[in-house]
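Problem: given the chain below (319 residues), write out its structure.
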Amino acid sequence: MNDTLRWMVFTVGFVGICSLAHGADELPAPADVTTEKVLVVPKYCEGVVFDHQGYGYISWGDTITQFTPDGEHRDWAKTGAPNGHKVLADGTHLVCDASQHAMLHLDANGKILGAVSWQCEGKPLRGPNDLSLDPHGGFYFTDPGGSSDTNPIGTVHYVDTAGKTHLIDEGLAFPNGIVLRPGGKILLVAESKKNRILEYEVLGQGKVGKRRVFADLPAKDEAAGQIDNQPDGMCLDAAGNLYVAHYGMKQVQVLDPTGKLIARYDGGNLTTSNVAFGGSETNTLYITGGLGGEAGGGGLFRIPLGVKGLVILPPKAGE
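Solution.
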């Protein structure tokens, strides 16, 4: 990736991503909403995100599929093993890809333009998983590749406006979903193998304070058909509530800004993997995962919550 392209991505692409809506909609009771199936893909899916035109994207297998809010869809790109995904102000895309051990940059039509991060401090990345945009012009991402509860080698990184990748934290048991709170002062990371959400105070670009436990999450109930309890992808609503796709529990769990569990919604998929707000009013929660285990098909579901999601999509370049 040349310096001119890097400058364009990092100085134009991250403007104004953390506007917080005024007023908080009240969460509906789980019994008062219905989880609706939108579409099914051949494999377990992740990485749901929406662009400026309202199209959504999900990652499955080696493919990224583009969809409308009502479920019309087409294959948009093939990268190898796409996962977490965000759209920039200029209409280009950042995609985590474990098979390429890199953070990829794609154009608006799905063509791979190159990698924006592939190493940190001289060490190659193992398998980037998810990312969160930063209002200062960079982004954070998780790299759990090869980590587990007995081999906690997972890392968290920050890529600055010059394209340099910084190590934020290490020694984690599968760092997964990641979100930055409005204002860019608090970073939240799901540590899957410990069934908890971590919190970091952001001290500056590429610098954070000591990790703290924001919340320990509920354990699986095997009698209810739950097979695991690993927090995966996450998103925020405009009131600051955190929505966690809880892999293996067929649930999206909602934590208030203090870390208190305030709601559990049916995620549709057994291996619930990621969440994002979309739709014309940004008040419908879209959910990805596997209909059964990861070896089977994947599904995209939605819940018309009527709650405003936090807008993380940067304004179009020039606006």
